[in-house]
Design goal:
Shape: globular
CATH topology: Rossmann fold
Number of domains: 1
Strand order of the largest sheet: 3-4-5-8
CATH superfamily: NAD(P)-binding Rossmann-like Domain
Number of helices: 9
Length: 231
């Protein structure tokens, strides 16, 4: 989904700085973006969990971007996470600690400049803890709360923070899962929705609007009944 978002912004003339643990794997994507949209695209090594290096990473960028999009996450396996503490910590750190710390550093830089937009990709899984994915969901809930607080803090500084809550997206993370078509977005459709919301200055969006209704229903189930369900 991150690359689809990069394509959507590049299509509108934005230069792109792609960051990943193995930036060399993105060389073909970099060349494609440059040729296809006639924009400048650079690659940068970045480890979301190496929080001690976040400030140096931001300082090393060719230029401070005006839009920062964070698409970092690890689904993991719920059953494994229930008994393997190392696996559970890995999921929690990848979905909350890493994204929150890098966006905190970027927020500080944007605040000094008094301009910029931060887009954090969280998940509908954070809307309510459910037996089938509560380790992943709890980390996403924390990230959603972080983005909400960051948005509140920066509201009068010229810096905007947008929270994206994807439901199912047909990506490598969901490969092999039986996904209901009505609730599943393509990466390109999700990117279109994110860009449109960015232009409108939206605060919180679901990549498919139906998820707002779905999670509203799930969130309204009384706890006594909810405990008897496994969803």
């Amino acid at each position: 989904m991150g690359l689809a978002i990069a394509h959507r912004f590049a299509k509108e003339g934005f230069d792109v700085q792609l960051a990943a643990r193995r930036p060399e794997d993105l060389e073909r994507a970099r060349a494609d973006l440059e040729v296809r949209y006639n924009v400048t695209v650079t690659l940068h090594a970045f480890d979301a969990l190496a929080f001690h290096a976040h400030e140096a990473f931001v300082a090393s960028l060719p230029k401070l971007p005006y839009v920062a999009v964070c698409v970092v996450g690890l689904l993991g396996d719920q059953r494994t996470n229930e008994t393997d503490l190392e696996a559970a910590v890995g999921v929690m750190r990848a979905n909350f600690e890493g994204p929150a710390t890098i966006l905190g550093v970027i927020a500080n830089a944007f605040e000094v400049r008094r301009a910029g937009t931060i887009i954090g990709v969280s998940s509908v899984a954070g809307d309510r803890g459910r037996a089938t994915n509560y380790v992943y969901g709890s980390a996403k809930a924390g990230f959603t709360a972080f983005l909400s607080g960051l948005r509140n803090r920066l509201a009068k500084t010229g810096v905007h923070v947008m929270t994206v809550k994807p439901g199912f997206v047909a990506t490598r993370m969901t490969e092999g899962m039986k996904l209901p078509p009505a609730l599943t977005a393509t990466p390109e459709a999700a990117a279109d929705r994110i860009f449109a919301a960015y232009e409108k200055g939206a605060n919180v969006i679901y990549t498919k609007p139906i998820w707002r209704l779905v999670m509203g229903v799930i969130g309204s189930i009384p706890e006594g009944i909810f405990k008897k369900l496994k969803i």
